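Researcher: I'm preparing a figure for a lab meeting and need a structural model of a single chain. I don't have an experimental structure, so a prediction will have to do for now. The sequence is pasted below. Please return the structure as tokens so I can convert it later.
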Amino acid sequence: MRNEEQVTPKEFLEGILNCDKPIIILPHEQADIDAYATAWLFRDFLKLRGKKAYIYLDSPSLELRRFIEALNLKTFSDDYDRVLKMLEETEEYCLLLVDIHDYRRFSSSKIKNLVERSTIIFIIDHHYGQIPREKKIVAYRRFYPSSCEVALELLENEKEFAMLIKRKELANALIGAILFDTNFFLNAQPRTFYHISELVKNGDLKLVYQILKEKQRELPERIARLKGAQRLQLLKIGNTLITVSKIGSYESSVANALLSLGADISLVVSRKKENSKRYIRVVGRSRKKVNMAAIFSKLAKSLGGVGGGHERAAAIQIPVDRIQSEEELVKEIIKEILKILQNALS
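Model: Understood. Here is the structure written out token by token.
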């Protein structure tokens, strides 16, 4: 099989179905609804094909925990315990990463060990960014609004597909994933509506929509959003407004809030510590035709960090010893944004 992301659906499925070991399905840390639904869809598919497949849901996000509770969905706690037992017994396994392609971004030593011990890594993802090649990788990546749309495309011609999407709980999870990752269809593509039209035959779009829309932000997140606005610096380039702010947590939420206040592009900077390593992290959001993921991926490659995401929502993380300061990293990002804006004007 070709060890690259241009594999066909048939090649990808043949590869993972030919795996003669148990398959651990691993979402990204702080797993969101999209990662959860994608993992669930593929777990059930693999089990229908007679495979041993387990989801390792180690640190679900607050939004996902609320979503699961509101709809009384599966937590896959038995799967979690089974994976821990496999690790204790040093059992061999294959690994399927969902909604993430760069395993170097994992911070948990437990998950890093999980990745390191895998014999082969399969990937289903929809983010921009470089896929590392230190291990044997088989990736199916398409730049759709959500990872579950990539997974649905992979399985839509399989005989089990109709049976899977008839499962109401799973259909609701997939509807929630699409609503969540497309920002309630604002970032949808034509195929998004095809998938939704199939899922709503058994799922409850209205119910899922109401649950996601009615979420209440916790006090710490609300404080972070207000502090982000309080600390912002404003740059005006032609008719484009760029905001830069620093915060300790909830960077994505703060970046989104600054867009809602009127920014065209928002950059939110924070310092992170993972084990003994320290990083500078920047989250970017854009309403302009500026590919933030391409900018962050390019800079990460040159600065020795990791970066990527979507065209209008991305992040970059650089070790502190590879960059002089937060200001220096922001300066490099703005320099790349300026190039794009100037090219658009010319």
